[in-house]
Amino acid sequence: MSRFLNSTLARLTPYTPGEQPQGGGFVKLNTNESPFPPSEGVLNAISRAEVEKLNLYSDPTLNPVVSALAKRFGVENKNVYAGNGSDEVLAIAMYAFGEKGFSYPDITYGFYSVIADFFGIDCVRPKLKSDFTIDISDYMGNDRAVIIANPNAPTGIFLPLSEIEKILIANPDQVVIVDEAYVEFGGESASVLLDKYENLLVVGTFSKAWNLAGARLGYAVGNEALIADLNRLRCSFHPYNINRLTLLSGQKAVEDEEYYIGCRQKIIATRARVQAELESLGFTLTPSKANFIFARPPKGDAERIYKALYEKKVLVRYFPSGRTKEYLRISIGSDAQMDKFLDAVKSIL
Ligand SMILES: *Cc1c(COP(=O)(O)O)cnc(C)c1O
C-alpha cells in the first residue's frame, strides 16, 4: 500500500474471488461458471467486422442489451438498466439507495459487504435460521433498504415469491433488491411483481445462466424512476460502462434463449444426479435451486476434503468461517466434470 492512498480506503478488505488457475488440468467447480460455450448467435456476432469497430465508443444508452431485455421481461426500455457485470449494477444500486443502510442475511453473497464498506453504507445482517432459510420477520418494518439473493448464495435456497412480496409490502419506503444471479436454474423471477411494487429492483447477470461470465454483463429491471436514478449515477461515473462486443453478445444471447434453456436443463438434470450420489455417500445438502450444490460431508470435515480435492486437481469453493465451515460449494459442470468430481470424492472418503 502506498502512503498516498486515502486512509479510509486503506481499511477496505477486498472481495476474494474464487481461484482462476492459469495452469491447465483443473476440473473447475469453484465459481459457478457455465461449462457450456455461448450460443451460435453470440459466436457469429463477434466478427472481424465488429472488432474493427472498436475504434468507436460503445452505445452510452446500452440499447442493444436494454432493448433485448425489455422484450424478454415484457417491459419498456426505461425499465431496464445494464452494467459491467451485476457486481457493478449492485454497487451502483447500493450506493443509490443505501442512504439509511442495508439489511441482508448473515450468510449470503460476500460482495454485498465489500460494496457497503466501499461506500460507507451501514449494514445489519440478520441470521439465517439453522436450516439456512431466511426468517422474513427479520425484514418486517425495516428502516433500511434490503437485498436478498434469490436463490441465496452459497446455500442455493430459494425464497418463495409470496415471501418476497411480504418484504416488499412491509418496506414501502425502502428499495428491496432481489439479486437473481441463479434464478434460471429452478427459481421464479420476482420480475412478475414489478407492476405492483415501485420499491422492487430485480438484478440479474449473464455470468451464470447465459454462459457469458467473461463478457461481464449484468442488468436491473425496475420502475422507471429507479432505473433513471441508476442511469444518473452511471452517467456521473462511467457512461460507456459496457463495451461494444459485450453489448452485442448480450443482445444475441437473449435472442438465442432457447439454446440457454437447453443448457440450464442439462445443469438441472446433472444437479439432481450429483445430489443423489452425494446423499448416498452420506453428505447433507441444502435444497439448491442454483447451478451449485452446498454440501456437508459426512463428518463435516469440509476443509480436509476441499484440500484433498485440490490435490486431485478438482477445484470447489470453501468458505472457512462461521456456519459455512463444514460445507463445500460445488458448481455444477458438465457430466464428465461431475464424474471426475464424484470419483475424487469417493476415493477421498
Ligand atoms: C455471481 C454472482 C453475482 C455477480 O455476477 P457478475 O455479473 O459476474 O458480476 C451477483 N450476485 C450473486 C449472488 C452471484 O453469485
Name a few traits of the molecule.
seven-stranded mixed sheet, three-stranded antiparallel sheet, binds pyridoxal-5'-phosphate, 349 residues, 11 helices, alpha/beta
String of helices and strands: EHHHEHEHEEHEEEHHHEEHEEH
Return the structural class.
alpha/beta
- What spatial form do the alpha-carbon principal axes imply? globular
Taking all residues together, what is the mean pLDDT?
97
Please report the total strand number as a whole number. 12
Q: How far do the termini sit from each other?
A: 43 Å
Biggest beta sheet summary: 7 strands, mixed
Number of discrete helical segments: 11
Low-confidence spans: pLDDT under 50, at least 5 residues? none
Q: Tell me what portion of residues adopts beta-strand conformation.
A: 5-15%
Describe this structure in words.
The chain is built from 11 helices and 12 strands. With 349 residues, it is an alpha/beta fold. Helix 5 (111-119) links the parallel strand 3 and strand 4 (123-124). It is globular. The N and C termini lie far apart (43 Å). The relative contact order is 0.17. The model has no long low-confidence stretch (mean pLDDT 97). Pyridoxal-5'-phosphate binds at residues 32, 85-87, 109, 149, 153, 179, 181, 205, 207-208, 213, 218. Residues 32, 85-87, 109, 149, 153, 179, 181, 205, 207-208, 213, 218 line the site of pyridoxal-5'-phosphate.
Summarize the structure.
The protein is α/β, with parallel strands linked by helices and 349 residues long. The protein has helices spanning 40-45, 48-52, 63-73, 86-97, 111-119, 161-170, 224-234, 244-255, 257-280, 302-311, 335-348, and strands at 27-28, 80-83, 102-103, 123-124, 145-149, 176-179, 200-205, 218-222, 284-285, 292-296, 314-315, 328-331.
